[in-house]
Amino acid sequence: MLHVDLDQFIAAVEVLRRPELAGRPVIVGGRGDPTERAVVSTASYEAREFGVGSGMPLRIAARKAPEAVILPVDAAEYTAASEKVMATLRAMPGATVQVLGWDEAFVGVVTDDPEAYARDLQFAVLERTRLHCSVGIGDTLVRAKIATGFGKPAGIFRLTGENWVEVMGHRPTIELWGVGTKIARRLAGHGITTVSSLADADPAVLAAEFGPRMGPWYRQLGRGEGARVVDDTPWVARGHSRETTFQQDLEDPADIEAALRELAERVLDDVAAEGRPVIGLTLKVRYAPFFTKTYQRRIPVTSDRADVVERVIGLAADRIEADRAIRLLGLRAEMTMPDDAREGHTPTRSGW
Fold this sequence. Notes:
- By secondary structure, the protein is an alpha+beta fold.
- The protein has helices at residues 9-17, 45-48, 58-64, 75-90, 114-129, 141-151, 164-168, 181-188, 195-199, 203-210, 214-222, 253-274, 305-319; strands at residues 2-6, 26-28, 42-43, 69-71, 96-101, 104-108, 133-138, 156-159, 239-250, 278-287, 291-302, 326-335.
- A five-stranded mixed sheet has the order 5-6-1-7-8.
């Protein structure tokens, strides 16, 4: 199985639209105005050399790379480019394609020479879209995904059970796909700091720390094990989310409630298109100056729009800290899953 990852995808699409930007530091984020509150969606390799990275406040990115060209996000353009890439992957001989997002997908194929197949795939994508991609080859989805990082940019790398320990064993756990900063810190609290030490960790210790499902999963992850099948069943969203960054902090309770109602209506517009009821809510609040908390609540299964909105307001009233200025609000509505949805999960930073 192969993991295909488009190199600096959003920045690359922008450079195709504006060839004069080739070789220059390019930053994409928000409305392209670093004086506004927004974060970096992507940065070209040239911008990354200045320390600019995804998720960084745009004003800080502009300070780090003062010569960079800063552009607004154009989701429609990126979606169109992504669809062309995925169509190219599906046209590859014998390919089963599992789309992960705008810029990445798994490709399952039966071949005696995966490197040659990967080169043909890269050529096809470049010829059809003028975009470069890196390809990871693995015998599990996790290994293929991690392998891609060693192939960047525009390269190919194979990571299997044969070279897993050699390549990954000595590396810190945070380099695993599925382990973030908080999980790595909790693992370190038990003396588990490397991939090999996680692979050999006591299952009982992990289960006690992370629960009976996630504990064993982290140990499995340390061994690079996991799913070995690329599933092209159409992806079905478990939920929809939206968020708004306010250019001026919200402090008045009436303003906060109005913003929440508007946010809920936008999320529910997305949910309505799915035709499935809501079963859970997650509220994201970023307090000034930059402290973020999330609050979750299960709710009775409902398709009543007004009911969901009032439950959002109730969750906020119960959990939002009074007398604290708010710079961002986000809301996610989780829905019931259809009976024919893909079983299991794709591995992500939060699990399988």
